[in-house]
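Hello forum,

I keep getting stuck at the same step: I have a sequence, I want structure tokens, and every attempt I make locally crashes halfway through. Rather than fight my setup again tonight, could one of you with a working pipeline run this one for me? It's a single chain of 125 residues.
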Amino acid sequence: VQLQASGGGLVQPGNSLRLSCAVAGRTLSTFTITWFRQGPGKEREFVAAVRQSGSTHYRDSMKGRLTVSRDNAKNTVYLQMNSLRPEDTAVYYCAAAHSRLIVSSLRNEDYYDYWGQGTQVTVSS
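Reply #2:
Ran it on my machine without issues. Output:
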């Protein structure tokens, strides 16, 4: 199984980006797919997830600015990020878990089986 994250770039504050996570080697719907990010000098943190059931979950501080969606036909998960702020600058990673994780476990990196390589998002004027 391979995950390929893409869509990052340099954007001005207030603008939007859509990140993609393409999954190869296994049907997307068998995974929980989660986005994490790691900002400069910070630990990696949970951003958003879509579970096998299709339910979505978001980082509390970013709710209202994020939409995570899944296209099973394309085996791809998207993360739409709006109203971006300088503090959103980070490398964004997607990760896949075979297990049907409960909500409280989504943030635990130990439960994930596969990781993408990360895509850099820089929010700056």
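The chain has a mean pLDDT of 96. If your local run keeps crashing, start a new thread with the error log.
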